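Good morning C.,

I know you're traveling, so I'll keep this short. The sequence:
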Amino acid sequence: MIPDMMRAVEISEPGGPDVLKPVSRPVPVAGHGQILIRVQWAGVNRPDALQRAGLYAPPSGASDLPGLECAGTVVGVGTGVTRWKTGDRVCALLPGGGYAEYVTCPAEHALVVPVGLSLREAAALPETAYTVWSNVVDRGALRAGERFLVHGGSSGIGTMAIQIANALGARVWATAGSAEKCAACTKLGAVAINYRDEDFVKVLGKSGGADLILDMVGGSYIARNLKSLADDGRLVMIAFLGGAKADLNFAQIMMRRLHVTGSTLRPQSEAAKARIANDLRCELWPLVEAGAVRPVIDSTFPLADAAEAHRRMESSEHIGKILLQVADEG
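The tokens, ready to paste straight into the viewer:
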């Protein structure tokens, strides 16, 4: 039986982790084309922290609660939904609302929990899988044999990107900021570059330059990324942790036929996200079920300790994903 009220964590006001407060909220109702999920695990992502700080407003019509991914059980199906039924175990990309016991989302944005994975592991997949696949495979057009560089290789995005690129037959390099993080990247199949000790421009230059770079740093890395690219290389930007502005010589883009692009996931249309979900279902999920790609989980926290989870994320000490346990898995 679905209750009228649920536990959730809301952003009481813009600010640091302490503004995340446990509350009681009405359980949402699945509308047309939506499903209602009883959440057992929710992912913690940097956009959650940006929203908490008042720097990233949710899209129109989305829940004001943070949380962009979850795994759980379908307990309600809206009109027009034929893919899912109550009792199905799913993981899903959310427009918001994941820090709660129940959440609604477009039915086409949910994916079956891959065979061999727990709900805990599945909750670590949607945000990173959607982001990496759409930017590395679709937008970046990575091909077997190409040289691929990902910055922040020990992050949730980075660990997923290393594995997908390896599964596609690319040669992979990854930057990270400590020996422990570099070891994690190496274990996943990347040539690790400790950016505190080595210059990734020189490292990639010795191998002919990168065919594709996935960057979430921005700032001073942007010009260095262009120098690191091989002729006809591609740079895909997905975040700007180091700043969104750079002083660039655009002549090199013309002379070396470089491609610079980027995207952000949350503002894209429901139809665009549904197309990505279909690609994941057909192309990535078989790799997950075969063991070629697996989520890397750093730590878990109870839902009520969401503030501690945010502190862990903002410390940048984590390797892989941080999750919130919303309910017991059973």
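Safe travels,
E.
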